[in-house]
Design brief:
674 residues, globular
Length: 674
């Protein structure tokens, strides 16, 4: 049920603008899965929304004779009510801002919409929706501000929930909207699922005079399923809310919508600490390496500012960890990256937030990562000439292809080709020459607009890519079946420069400052040198510019460090577009104040071959991190000393995070050398 709280407010608005503006547009499109011309209406509505972002929205209402009750049944009582309020003589048809009592042909929507968007609106509308994903309760706040006077004393506010990405059948007589097909499933978008207002025609609001601010709040329990029979799940990640103000309520009389908007939407909770993983995605283009950067989008759904998060990830038995520190306000979103190793193929990654502001948290999400296999081409020069043999089928106009570098730059492309005359199975060979640079990961992609490859019923086509010596790199003249597209990776390896970057020496460390120096051996002068410096429990480095002196040393410094922190730094040199790194070195900045623990702290032997002794007054816990920020050991401390058994640790540098009983944290380093 919907609980409604309504107030006439004299307070300042939170969301809505008080500046006069023109009308925004709501197109209510009456449609159905049995309507073969309706996908053309969907296409036109999509194009109008794309042309007027933030000004125009379509509401697809499944009602009338072509709406079907088989799965997915998207018919709603509110949709039937709205459909019945207009004279509808065909499908698809629609009303634009309810400016007419009869549905308008899809060819008229654009003209009517432009007229409306050029007309001054009597009011503005905006708001916010906060959804608790656990309880499925939505708190909806809508504000209406009158910048002018309505022609009537009472208007009507409608709030509607819509849903995208509903897969199901759809008649489509002319392949009017090919971009919304996935195989034999049609992707239904901006579907009316429910009207939140008490009436399908909206809730009354007044006064409607210039300077009035009206705030209306709804508490709405999002259903699990809407529709009977064969209802459709309400996916919280694919819903959104529209609000609009209409001049009159219902009937076939003139009742225009004055303006509308899409409400901002966040997921949240009343709990103080409530981090949420909104998405997990693989970032960057295709690369010829198993190391992939994963972006974790974290939102603060609680009431307390998040200042620290522990995030752990697992891929095929390998575990990764990152400690994030910052200031994430309520509802704000932070993108946090973790580099992980991904074997060839598709693999699941499990990401969980285990701590937030020092508090244990259980927040888990799973996604799929991909590592495409790549071919390797060894060359002697700085570039290579490739040859593409493309045997097209009859419908060459459907075929395109391109070669791109790892940063997405298109270095070659081709097609579409001609449609061949003659029988259904005619073919024609097209030969293309492509220059690819050395030391680059190149992606070849071929596309077929007919989504059936270059084979079979319309001619047995194929594609083959060869090197300059005529050796086949990939492709098969016996197989041109790839559906809508196919991609291949190619690592082009040229002569490698001799570049050796030394370990970084750190000096003149203070609260915020440090100087860096590293050696460099090279046979080609570097394009760029510098240092990557990061907090040891963070994966994102800051880039510190450097310069090369006459003795072949890389020099650099920074004044942007944080006190009481452990850092890891490594020098780098870019030569012929390839980045070379030196060994990472750790150091810690000065601590503000002198805590009792810091005065008494002793760590020995360092380096250690087995047991590491840690002594200090007031310790409560110790965490050990490796050089890439993974937590490898946690120990609770009872008393003023502890012994850590390091036999399970590999040789290398490790970082200690020592928690004191007064809340202070000390960071130190030690190394294992056996």
């Amino acid at each position: 049920m919907t609980l409604l709280a309504f107030t006439f407010s004299l307070k300042a608005q939170q969301y809505v603008s008080t500046e006069p503006a023109n009308r925004n547009v709501i197109i209510e499109e009456f449609t159905g899965r049995g309507c073969g011309y309706c996908p053309d209406g969907h296409r036109i509505a999509n194009e109008l929304m794309a042309a007027h972002p933030g000004r125009l929205w379509a509401v697809n209402i499944h009602a009338g004779g072509y709406a079907q009750t088989t799965y997915p049944n998207m018919i709603t009582q509110d949709g039937n009510t709205i459909h019945g309020g207009f004279s509808i003589s065909g499908y698809p048809t629609g009303v634009v801002n309810r400016t007419t009592g009869a549905g308008q042909d899809r060819g008229q929507w654009g003209n009517i919409a432009n007229q409306q968007m050029n007309q001054a609106s009597e009011c503005n509308v905006a708001g916010m929706v906060v959804v608790n994903p656990q309880t499925r309760m939505a708190t909806i706040t809508v504000e209406v501000y009158y910048t002018g006077n309505s022609t009537v004393d009472q208007n009507y506010l409608t709030v509607a929930m819509l849903q995208d990405s509903i897969l199901g059948s759809q008649s489509d007589y002319g392949n009017f909207n090919p971009t919304q097909w996935i195989g034999n499933q049609y992707v239904h978008t901006h579907i009316l699922r429910d009207v939140i207002s008490e009436s399908a025609w909206g809730d009354p609001i007044s006064p409607t005079t210039q300077g009035t601010l009206i705030t209306q709040t709804y508490s709405y329990q999002i259903p699990e399923i809407i529709g009977s029979p064969n209802g459709v799940d309400v996916d919280i990640d694919n819903i959104f809310f529209l609000a609009w103000v209409s001049e009159r309520q219902q009937g076939n009389a003139y009742r225009p919508i004055l303006t509308g908007c899409k409400l901002d939407m966040v997921q949240g909770s009343d709990e103080p600490i409530y981090p949420m993983i909104r998405s997990i995605s693989q970032v960057g283009g295709a690369t010829c390496t198993h190391t992939k950067n994963v972006e974790i989008k974290v939102q603060n759904g609680g009431t307390e500012t998040l200042t620290a998060l522990t995030i752990e990830a697992a891929v095929e038995g390998n575990n990764y960890s990152v400690e994030w520190e910052g200031s994430l306000q309520q509802y704000a979103i932070e993108n946090i990256e973790i580099p992980v190793e991904v074997p060839f193929g598709n693999h699941a990654i499990t990401v969980q937030i285990t701590k937030a502001n020092g508090q244990d948290i259980e927040c888990v999400s799973v996604a799929t990562l991909n590592c495409m296999e790549w071919a390797v081409l060894e060359i002697e020069g700085e570039e290579e000439q490739l040859r593409l043999d493309l045997m097209q089928d009859k419908y060459g106009a459907q075929i395109t292809w391109n070669f791109t570098t790892s940063d997405g730059t298109v270095i070659a492309s081709g097609g579409p080709y001609t449609t061949l005359a003659g029988g259904a199975t005619v073919t024609q060979l097209n030969i293309e020459h492509i220059t690819v640079p050395a030391n680059e990961c190149v992606t070849f992609t071929i596309n077929d607009g007919g989504q059936n490859g270059i084979c079979c019923s319309y001619g047995h086509g194929y594609y083959i890519v060869k090197d300059s010596q005529g050796n086949v790199i990939f492709g098969d003249e016996n197989d041109g079946s790839f559906g809508s597209s196919a991609s291949h990776l190619l690592s082009v390896r040229g002569p490698q420069a001799t570049v050796e970057v030394g370990e970084t020496e750190v000096s003149n460390v203070s609260y915020t400052h440090a100087d860096f120096i590293s050696s460099l051996v090279y046979d080609s002068y570097p394009d760029e040198v510098g240092f990557e410096c990061r907090k040891v429990m963070r994966s994102d480095p800051m880039i510190i510019p450097g310069h090369l002196n006459e003795f072949g040393r890389i020099l650099g410094f920074t004044d942007e460090l944080e006190h009481s922190s452990v850092y890891a730094v490594k020098a780098y040199a870019i030569v012929n577009g390839v980045t070379y790194y030196g060994t990472e070195t750790s150091f810690h900045t000065w601590t503000e104040g002198i805590a009792e623990l810091e005065q008494s702290l002793k760590i020995y032997p360092n380096p250690t071959t087995g047991v590491l002794n840690i002594q200090g007054e007031g310790m409560t816990s110790i965490e050990v991190y490796n050089a890439v920020g993974q937590r490898v050991m946690t120990q609770v401390v009872n008393g003023n000393g502890i012994q850590l058994n390091t036999e399970s640790l590999n040789n290398g540098i490790y970082f200690l995070r020592i928690q004191a009983n007064d809340g202070a944290v000390l960071n130190r380093t030690f190394s294992v050398a056996r």
